[in-house]
Amino acid sequence: MSLSGRSPFSADAIHESDDGAVRWTGLTHAHGQPAEPEARRWLAAQLRDPDLSLWRDERQRPHLSPPHQDYDCNWSHSGERLLVALAPRARVGVDLERLQRRPRAIQIAQRYFTAAETAWLAAHPDLDRAFLRLWCAKEAVLKAHGHGLSFGLEKLRFAEHDGALRLIECDPALGEPAQWRLSEIAPEPGYLGALAWRPHENPGASL
Question: Judging by DSSP bridges, how do beta strands 14-16 and 6-8 pair with one another?
Answer without folding.
Answer: unpaired
